[in-house]
Design goal:
The chain is an alpha/beta fold and 274 residues long. Helix content is 40%, strand content 15%.
Length: 274
């Protein structure tokens, strides 16, 4: 699919559980999207504002929750450029912790985030949402707004249980499970438990992207470098895996099945050499 026909897609990184590599994936995928030539907006919806920190942005906004709820020009005026061509950021602040309760006071609350993002679908090819680990009304807003819900899963007992609970919740509430795709994150291939858990989860649940993100020093140190992996460590194993993940995400949003044809289209990424 060409960039024009892909305009306005919303990719949400989400999990009920924190500490699964969600923000790391959001930052790297947003960068790779922009590097492939797609005009990209990443929205930091987490009051911890880790994505905002990664991109070295000091937001000049106050009360981000009000900015989001107002939508329109209020959001547009607070979008910031990043150091990377084609990549913009809607930053977060600590006030977003109140957003779920405030959403409950507006009409059509579950559709509010989708309505806020709609005006930007014509301006950006891809909108990436870095979601907080939450099971509140905000989570349901994210489910409604997203064209693809990408869930990083650490192959551990608790993370697997949280993923199972998420799939059960989506099914009971009648959300479209076809747009939910998982991938394994923070994988330690030498651990037999990780290998066994991944195999069991692939058998139990549908729709896994083939790429797995390893647990490496390069990934861990992203917070110190405050830069996407392809910029800081372009030749690292984790960087290669994130490139694979991006191609599979792009292919999935292109309408192809990465399980049978994971390399459906190559979106060239400009190399940033060390």
């Amino acid at each position: 699919m060409a960039g024009e026909s892909r305009r306005g897609r919303v990719l949400a990184l989400y999990h009920l559980k924190g500490g699964v590599g969600k923000t790391t994936a959001a930052v790297n995928l947003a960068y790779l999207s922009a590097a492939s030539g797609l005009k990209t907006l990443i929205c930091d919806l987490d009051p911890q504002s880790s994505t905002t920190y990664f991109f070295r942005v000091k937001p000049a906004l106050k009360h981000a929750r009000r900015v989001l709820l107002k939508g329109g020009a209020s959001v547009a005026d607070n979008i910031k450029g990043t150091d990377y061509e084609g990549l913009d950021l809607l930053p977060a602040d600590w006030s977003l912790r109140h957003l779920p309760s405030l959403l409950g006071r507006v009409k059509r609350s579950k559709r509010r985030l989708r309505e806020i993002l709609d005006p930007f679908r014509g301006e950006y090819d891809l909108i990436v949402l870095d979601s907080p680990a939450t099971a509140t009304l905000l989570a349901e807003c994210i489910f409604v707004a997203a064209d693809m819900l990408l869930v990083p899963v650490v192959p551990s007992t608790l993370a697997a249980r949280a993923y199972a609970n998420l799939r059960l919740f989506l099914r009971r509430k009648g959300y479209d499970e076809a747009k939910v795709w998982g991938f394994f994150s923070m994988v330690e291939a030498r651990k037999k438990m990780h290998q066994a858990t991944m195999q069991a989860m692939r058998e139990q649940f549908p729709q896994w992207l083939p790429a797995t993100i390893p647990y490496t020093v390069d990934v861990e140190s992203m917070g110190l470098a405050r830069a996407p992996l392809p910029v800081r460590s372009p030749r690292a194993v984790a960087t290669r895996r994130f490139r694979e993940l991006w191609e599979q995400v792009a292919g999935r949003m292109d309408g192809r099945d990465p399980e049978t044809d994971p390399w459906v289209r190559s979106f060239p990424v400009r190399e940033v050499l060390e």
